[in-house]
Amino acid sequence: MSVVIQNTGKVLQRYGYLFLDGVKYTLLLSVITVFFGSILGSLLCMARKARIMPLRWIATAYVELIRGTPVLLQLYFFYFLLPEVLPFLDDKFLCISIALVFNSAAYVSEIIRAGIQAVDRGQTEAARSLGMGGGQTMLRIILPQAVKNILPALCNEFVMVIKETSLASTFFIGDLMTQYRVISGALYLVIEPLLVAGAIYFILTFTLSKCIAALERRLKAGD
Predict the structure, then answer these.
(1) Would you call 91 helix, strand, or coil by DSSP?
(2) Domains of the chain (ranges plus CATH)?
(3) Tens digit of pLDDT for each residue in 165-177?
(4) What is the rounded CA–CA span in Å between residue 41 and residue 26?
(5) C-alpha 104: how far from its chain's center?
(6) Which of 65, 118, 147, 156 has its CA 20 to 30 A from that of 76?
(7) What is the mean pLDDT of residues 199-211?
């Protein structure tokens, strides 16, 4: 055990900068995924609530397809397909980012839909009685209340995405697990760099989870 601790210290001393670089790419990938995934997820949610039946069917089929297939399969699909369809998208990081955005959008759309459904229907009826249209009611009455309901869930999605980015190391895009694989190959060590990577993931997710819990307490206090 003492040998493992000593080797872990050496790994941090010699390759700490690579782990920091991996954290940068992991967080960047997570922020891109959640930001654009939230935008696309909002559009999907609106499409699923639209009165145009084909649009609703397409949006529903998309969400079910994404939720019903493994993330890694989707990463492979986008990684190999995008450069073939769009030759200018030949950057590995970009392809993986797009894949994760499309994956996250399906789950975010469900989060938003649940948040909208949690708003009392009486709010909609009251807005309609004041002469507001469907769009005005959604933008001015429903969505502001729904955002309060879905904000903690969206933050939890961010935590989940940080862990899911570990799958991106399959394509060596510079994330934290990619750096683990590089360091492990250079030192012929497995456990020590894995311990460092695991500790960093834990620190990131634990810190964010505590921040989310504090946010939830503030939102409840605001009620």
Answers:
(1) coil
(2) 2-222 (1.10.3720.10)
(3) 999 899 999 899 9
(4) 21
(5) 5
(6) 156
(7) 92
